[in-house]
Design a protein that fits this description.
By secondary structure, the chain is an alpha/beta fold. Helices cover 57% and strands 8% of the residues. The strands form two sheets. Strands 3-2-4-5 form a four-stranded mixed β-sheet, sandwiched between helices. The chain has a two-stranded antiparallel ribbon with strand order 1-6. Helix 2 (47-59) links the parallel strand 2 (38-42) and strand 3. Helix 2 (47-59) packs across helix 4 (119-134), helix 7 packs parallel to helix 10 (249-269) and helix 9 runs antiparallel to helix 10 (249-269). 29% of the residues are buried.
């Protein structure tokens, strides 16, 4: 967020025209969409009023839709006239121009829908262009532009952080470590139980090869791991967690899958240390949670203070090299954090045009090597 604040650029100006509202959903109903941009209600069919209606049509751009509606003799307000004479509700437009009175004294009223931020300048600009046509300047046109003021630091930081969602996404990564730490630890319970009851010994004596025994254990544990993996992945998708869904969902799924693939063999390697299944289960749960959270938080804290305390940089670099090779829990948590950070850096470019990736890169794929790719690759090697 701090990098985005320093790299912010001015937002480009926006040309205002009535076609900017076409196809938008009008508040109050799902099916009510803006079809005609502007409705012109004429209270007379000849004279200045008729010429004004035609001038408004001529002033409209090619992709603007202006609908003329003749209601002779009516001087009522626009909503009443339009709703009375058309089956379509007046909320299908964002603005209107009504004309009534005599040919010598044409009374014109500009109507607008206040749900459109730029409705007033758009409808006034259309009216001014129509007046230019009446005055004989048929080749002249007034263009209306909106030049947004620079956003304040507080407003920009609020938008970049998703109103606190960025910190929540960081905590989600730590929470996933806590949840996933239980699953691989459960895989070793049955292996220790078979060793304690001599079940494994009997299978080996009956002709089952050690390779087949461990392969069957691994295959069954991976099938069991897919169930919580899919549930966790579905939660991200259902609740539309921006940092872990959408374009980031593929990286998140591969990260969870490779985590299960490498944690199962790692738990098997610790089987000789235990003879009681419950002891093995509790010990490995605590080990997974402790190593995962402590390593992730330690690296995060060192990164936060590395500029203030340069002496911490060598320790930080050593941890970044060693932890992914020895702690799959670190790779899972840190990988999710890096995906979230990459998501907000991409968001800064898409929304504000700020390129804050290292090297001046504006957009980076979540599966890139320096985002989640190296964590996935290292866990595959460990598996």
């Amino acid at each position: 967020i701090a990098e985005a604040l320093t790299a912010q650029t001015a937002e480009p100006p926006l040309e205002l025209s009535s076609n900017m509202y076409r196809g938008s959903v009008v508040a109050g109903g799902v099916t009510m969409r803006v079809d005609e941009n502007v409705v012109v209600i004429e209270g007379m069919t000849e004279g200045l009023g008729a010429r004004m209606g035609q001038a408004i049509q001529d002033a409209a751009l090619d992709n603007e839709r202006v609908k003329n509606f003749t209601a002779c003799g009516y001087t009522a307000a626009f909503p009443a006239v339009y709703m009375e004479h058309t089956p379509r509700r007046y909320t299908n437009v964002f603005g209107a121009i009504t004309m009534h009175g005599s040919n010598e004294d044409v009374q014109t009223t500009l109507w607008f829908d206040n749900k459109g931020y730029h409705a007033i300048p758009v409808i006034v600009n259309l009216w001014n262009n129509a007046r230019l046509r009446l005055l004989g300047f048929r080749q002249a046109r007034v263009q209306a532009w909106s030049h947004p003021l620079p956003k304040t630091q507080a407003r920009l930081q609020e938008e970049l952080s998703g109103r606190g969602q960025a910190m929540t996404d960081m905590l989600v990564a730590v929470t996933v470590i806590l949840a996933m730490g239980f699953i691989p630890a459960s895989f070793v319970v049955y292996v220790v139980h078979e060793k304690a009851t001599s079940g494994k010994h009997q299978q080996l004596l009956s002709g089952v090869s050690p390779v087949l025994y461990w392969f069957n254990c691994y295959a069954w544990d991976m099938v069991n791991f897919l169930v919580p993996l899919l549930l966790c992945f579905a939660i991200f998708l259902v609740f539309q967690v921006g940092a872990y869904s959408g374009s980031n969902s593929g990286a998140v799924f591969l990260l969870l899958l490779t985590y299960g693939a490498c944690m199962s063999p790692l738990m098997y390697c610790l089987e000789p240390l235990f003879s009681v299944p419950s002891t093995a289960y509790v010990t490995l749960i605590v080990t997974n949670i402790f190593t995962g959270t402590v390593s992730v938080m330690a690296v995060a804290v060192l990164e936060f203070y590395q500029h203030e305390v340069p002496d911490l940089v060598p320790t930080l670099n050593v941890l970044k090299v060693l932890c992914p090779w020895f702690l799959p829990n670190y790779s899972l948590g840190r990988g999710l954090m890096d995906i979230a950070v990459n998501h907000y850096k991409n968001f800064a470019f898409e929304e504000f045009g700020a390129c804050i990736h290292p090297g001046g890169v504006c957009f980076k794929d979540p599966l890139a090597w320096d985002v989640s790719g190296h964590y996935i690759s290292k866990m595959l090697v460990m598996a």
